[in-house]
Design a protein that fits this description.
about 500 residues, alpha/beta, five-stranded antiparallel sheet, globular
């Protein structure tokens, strides 16, 4: 077992203590494309500038699986422009920029439509188009297509291009931007529809049934947006997930009779047949495609066998063999298909290419019950979807930084043929006792000389100086960080603000 022994660890400030070491949050729950998997939190957090002269400890023994060379990572130094770095890398993230582009584009078109006094159909079409964007951003086939296209950039391309293409996993900004924009368009539609219903000259286009349906859908959309607020989503994720799913389904189900009733009224006013009016309305085709995209993953709903491997009171390993998993993929599992779903990045077992598994660590009621009462069968849906780890295939060399069960998604690289040179830095508590020899053997397959820090002996250390030094000595092109939200954001920020391409789950939406 490999550890890092600290002879004289310096005291930690209150702020530092929250940014070091492992967390009970299972980072493996963050790497899939569906809302159940992506527990993305794009909430702003206060990044404190790195402290000048900061180091891991006064004397650090770096013990890999095969060496115990004593080294002291150099101090990266404080940022020259901490204010600029915070705005550039913490506030104006790719996620927020995508959200802003989508919403501002919609807002510009919205103003143009209002000024030109267009018809109700324009508002319906715009709302439906944005709802389609919301659905496709969480549809596994669409997500896989996005990743395939973005990651088709060869490793021989300029680093600047690969660095930008690797940000594809921020597509959650499009999901959220389209969601808020859809509500904006729909509020305008309901407002105008209600006004016309109260005006005798135009009341023929707004029957009581249409008004009731329109307002019910609006209430459902507002509930979805409210539940998606980061603070609520993070603290009450199960409620957010159920609200998101069932309110979304009900809204789409009610949208169909609303659309058909509206078309009936519109065709009477235009003296056309129902069929002609129906096929001429873009919202009909958009809604049909959106409905199919929502139904598709549930066509793959299956109850599959699982071989649980109890490792410790903190972790369990679930083994599967019902399909073939590719590098960088994840899928959601559940004990009850109508309840909460949990996404885990899968990794190939070294025993055979047709077997794969995932690590489940103790992080809440569901995971605790999974460890206490190991399941023999679980439900799965959809097809495996690519996550953040998949983008690393574009780099010629990289470093993986993980804490706790975050090592699980990193082991997905076992399935990558001709994988580039990589190093592993893993900080966790009692790795052998907590995760077992099988996981440690898999880590060593990825990196014959990994750096594993046992926090039982060292405490939670600020490993950024070590990682920054390793980037330079290993000449790594990028760093992948898989950990809890606070650690991930802090490490990615520290690296990117110093010019090192760094990637990690964004916990967005």
């Amino acid at each position: 077992m490999c550890t890092v022994m600290a002879e004289a660890a310096r005291p930690q400030s209150t702020g530092e203590a929250t940014l070091r070491g492992t967390s009970s949050y299972s980072s493996a729950d963050t790497l899939s494309a569906s809302p159940a998997i992506g527990r993305d939190e794009e909430a702003t957090i206060g990044f404190e500038p790195p402290i000048k002269g900061e180091a891991i400890s006064s004397h650090v023994q770096q013990a890999s699986l095969g060496s115990t060379d004593s080294t002291a990572p150099p101090n990266p130094g404080e940022l020259a422009l901490p204010g600029y770095a915070k705005v550039r890398y913490a506030i104006l993230t790719i996620y927020r920029r995508l959200f802003s582009i989508v919403f501002l584009a919609n807002f510009a078109v919205f103003i143009a439509v209002v000024v030109r006094d267009r018809t109700l159909a324009d508002y319906v079409n715009a709302a439906a188009a944005n709802l389609l964007g919301v659905g496709l951003a969480r549809q596994p086939l669409a997500v896989n297509l996005m990743f395939k296209c973005a990651c088709a950039v060869p490793s021989s391309a300029p680093l600047r291009l690969r660095r930008l293409a690797a940000k594809i996993f921020h597509y959650g900004g499009v999901h959220s931007g389209c969601g808020v924009s859809a509500v904006m368009w729909y509020i305008a539609f309901v407002g105008i529809l209600t006004k016309e219903a109260m005006t005798p000259a135009t009341a023929r286009l707004a029957s009581p049934a249409i008004l009731v349906l329109a307002w019910l859908i609006l209430l459902l959309l507002l509930a979805i947006v409210t539940a998606a607020y980061p603070a609520f989503r993070f603290k009450r994720h199960d409620y957010f997930e159920l609200t998101h799913r069932f309110s979304g389904w009900l809204a789409i189900a009610l949208f169909w009779p609303l659309l058909l009733l509206y078309i009936e009224k519109a065709r009477q006013a235009e003296h056309q047949s129902f069929g002609i009016t129906l096929v001429k309305l873009p919202a009909f085709w958009i809604l049909a495609f959106l409905t199919l995209s929502i139904i598709h993953p549930w066509l793959y709903l299956r109850k599959v066998p699982v071989n649980p491997e109890y490792i410790s009171p903190h972790a369990i390993r679930l083994h599967f063999n019902f399909t073939t998993i590719k590098f960088g993929q994840a899928f959601a599992i559940s004990k009850n298909p109508l309840r909460d779903w949990h996404g885990f990045a899968q990794f190939r077992d070294i025993e055979g290419p047709d077997k794969f598994s995932c690590l489940v660590s103790k992080a809440g009621d569901w995971t605790s019950d999974c460890i206490a009462r190991p399941p023999t069968h679980v439900w799965k849906r959809g097809v495996p979807a690519f996550g953040v780890g998949y983008v690393m295939k574009m780099f010629r060399s990289f470093i993986m930084v993980a804490t706790g069960s975050g090592i699980g998604p990193c082991l997905s690289f076992l399935a990558l043929e001709n994988r580039p040179p990589l190093r592993v830095v893993w900080q966790t508590r009692a790795p052998l006792k907590t995760y077992g020899k099988g996981v440690l053997d898999s880590v060593k397959v990825l990196d014959p000389d990994p750096i594993v820090l046992d926090t039982t002996h060292t405490g939670r250390q600020d490993i950024f100086p070590m990682v920054f030094d390793l980037v330079k000595t290993f000449k790594a092109e990028a760093v992948l960080v898989i950990s809890n939200p606070i650690f991930t954001r802090k490490m990615v920020f520290d690296l990117e603000s110093r010019g090192v391409p760094a990637y990690g789950p964004i916990f967005d939406s």
